[in-house]
Amino acid sequence: MLKDVFQALHPKSCPRDYNFHMHTTYSDGRLHPQALIEQAIDIGLKGLAITDHHSVGGYQTARRCLQNRGTSGDRSSLPTLWSGVEVNANLLDTEVHILGYDFDPDVECIQPYLQGRAVTGSHYQAASAIDAIHQAGGIAVLAHPARYRRSPVELIRAAADLGIDGAEAYYAYNNPDPWTPSPRQTEQVRELNACYGLLSTCGTDTHGLSILQRL
Known about the structure:
single chain, about 220 residues, alpha/beta, TIM Barrel, five-stranded mixed β-sheet
């Protein structure tokens, strides 16, 4: 189960074992999903999620690529791909990003968030986004909680009150090379997650041509 994977993550898990935050040409990334999957295989990733903004097109294309590879070679060497998406939402009058994982993209309640554009109205509220991800059988995670104008302390507490499952703890806020999670923010978010019983996730937030970097 994906929750078991999240529970076992540590600061060294990303980006060469797991990567749960990546964008493709289906939103604002530069990598085609097939190229992303080829990199994941070359690196030896165990598992990943493509989290395009308001779209699962990249995930679906990548899934087909993996299926084709699986029919023509050794399946045991292929990474596990989970569904993913990143959506905009309002939390404490602040626009945040919520990551959805391992959900059924065909469920009706998640459809407003998969139309290639930010949602509005009641769908834009964090509570609605979290609920839709849960109703679709998925896991909801607050992305890069130290990047907003409100503090991680405020946002993670508020998100936990709404039933969110986790917050992205292992994240590189200043885009270092090689990629490594920012120590101060990582410690703070991990402590907050532990306080509220939340999962800690990781990801490079890839937008460029390498899944080992953000840009």
